[in-house]
Write a structure and sequence with these properties.
The protein is an alpha+beta fold. The chain contains four helices and five strands; from the N terminus they run H-H-E-E-H-E-E-E-H. It has helices spanning about 5-15, 20-30, 60-65, 105-120; strands spanning about 40, 45-50, 70-75, 80-85, 95-100. Strands 3-4-5 form a three-stranded antiparallel β-sheet. A two-stranded antiparallel sheet has the order 1-2. Strand 1 and strand 2 form a beta hairpin.
Length: about 120
């Protein structure tokens, strides 16, 4: 099971990145298991994931694949992303996840990881 704290820590690292980062992509792929059957090996020098992870930190399409089912999202050109889960009823609380990053893809990736953390709870 994915821990909420691990997802939030990874989201903060994504949000702090200056641009696309294949090492972060690999970590996201390993943590979220979004690559289907994932095999992770550590040969002491690098982390290898098979198949290669999607380019979450570079591509809006790849980042959007991380958004949990049922969540709506918006991304702005200034590097802000907003995700929200519509309320289930009149008195339910609307859940949100927000991120600001150097690029829209980084922002959407970070916000999606925060939404996953919200769903994971603890």
């Amino acid at each position: 099971m994915i821990r909420s704290a691990d997802l939030l820590a990874l989201a903060a690292r994504v949000e702090a990145a200056d641009g696309a980062d294949r090492a972060l992509d690999a970590e996201i792929g390993a943590v979220t298991l979004k690559n289907g059957a994932v095999r992770v090996t550590d040969d002491g020098r690098r982390l290898q994931i098979s198949p290669p992870p999607r380019r979450y930190t570079a591509s809006l399409d790849a980042a959007a694949s991380l958004v949990p089912e049922g969540w709506n999202w918006e991304v702005y050109s200034d590097g802000t992303a907003l995700l929200w889960m519509p309320p289930a009823g009149e008195w339910s609380i609307r859940r949100t996840a927000v991120a600001d990053a150097a690029t829209p893809a980084l922002a959407l990736t970070a916000a999606a990881l925060r939404a996953m953390a919200e769903e994971a709870g603890e």
